[in-house]
Specification:
The complex is a heterodimer of chains A (115) and B (163). In chain A, 22% of the residues lie in helices and 37% in strands. With 115 residues, chain A is α+β, with helices and mostly antiparallel strands. Chain A has a 5-stranded mixed beta barrel. The longest helix of chain A has 19 residues, at 2-20. Helices cover 80% and strands 0% of the residues of chain B. Chain B is elongated and about 55 Å long. The model of chain B has no long low-confidence stretch (mean pLDDT 96). The chains are: A alpha+beta (115), B mainly alpha (163).
Chain lengths: 115, 163
């Protein structure tokens, strides 16, 4: 019984060790991209607002910020409305295909920091 | 391991409730903050209870600390469950397929089973135990396991966002 419980206790610590080598964050900051194009869809939702952008190469899903932050930074839904042209600088996801997380976006000549 | 979310979780996420949580400016952050505050209540109760069972604060009879600390832990757990359900509903299909969440859920089950298994021997062991007397080894091992498991649950909770 004692050995079993100690084994289980060890197991309880295992996930942190096993997963540690995957690194933190699922976006590759060493390969920044700038996605430019019209906004095709907008989800102005928590935990992060997302837009899809029809860029020259493909349609990107661009993850923005929590909506309370979007609002306080001056990016209400109207700024990132469907049809507007956006330039989003950020980092591609290492997990989701064609997804990137924006560091900052520029719409209508206005740049808003997302982080 | 779950790689594709079951239909009922997709339906939960796409429900009016799920949408309402995501579209509210304050509800999701409020549940997030509430979850952390509930965790402090839960962890406070768990740590006080388990440390006393392991032999700390020995000047107090075990029951004097364990009973109120356990009640506090159960209150914290109820609040964690409530706030956690809100966070889960907003992103049910994504969260359910997240490996760290799956590990977290397994560890929660382990922690609850541990608490249930030790419930009866615990109550009889502390019923009339005096101060300074060490508790049975089985109780102390369960307390150690409890501390390890619940700390790992908390760590997994925070790590869901990074995997």
């Amino acid at each position: 019984m004692r050995r079993l419980i100690l084994g289980l206790a060890g197991l309880a610590f295992a996930p942190a060790v096993v997963l540690a080598h995957h690194g933190w964050g699922s976006y590759d900051a060493s390969k920044p991209v700038t996605v430019v194009g019209p906004i095709e869809t907008l989800k102005y939702e928590n935990p992060h607002a997302t837009i899809t952008v029809k860029a020259a190469d493909k349609v990107w899903t661009v993850t923005l910020a929590p909506i309370s932050r979007m609002q306080t930074r001056g990016a209400p839904p109207e700024l990132v409305a469907v049809g507007k042209t956006v330039s989003a600088y950020g980092y591609p996801s290492t997990v989701e295909k064609d997804e990137m997380r924006a560091e900052r976006i520029t719409v209508d000549g206005k740049t808003v920091e997302m982080r | 391991m779950l790689h594709e979310a079951p239909q009922f979780l997709v339906a939960l996420e796409q429900s009016g409730l799920g949408a309402a949580i995501r579209q509210s400016v304050w509800l999701y952050p409020a549940a997030n903050v509430g979850h952390i505050l509930a965790l402090t209540v839960f962890a406070g109760g768990v740590v006080a209870m388990d440390l006393r069972l392991l032999g700390a604060f020995a000047a107090a009879p075990p029951a004097a600390i364990v009973r109120p600390a356990r009640a506090l832990a159960m209150l914290g757990f109820a609040l964690l469950l409530l706030t956690g359900s809100i966070l889960f509903t907003a992103e049910a299909s994504h969260v359910a397929t997240n490996r760290v969440f799956q590990i977290k859920a397994g560890l929660i089950a382990l922690g609850l089973i541990n608490a249930l298994l030790v419930n009866r021997p615990l109550h009889s062991a502390i019923a009339s135990a005096p101060a300074f007397a060490p508790l049975p080894g089985r109780i102390r091992l369960a307390a150690l396991l409890s501390l390890c498991v619940w700390f790992c649950v908390a760590a997994c909770g925070r790590l869901i966002a990074y995997f």
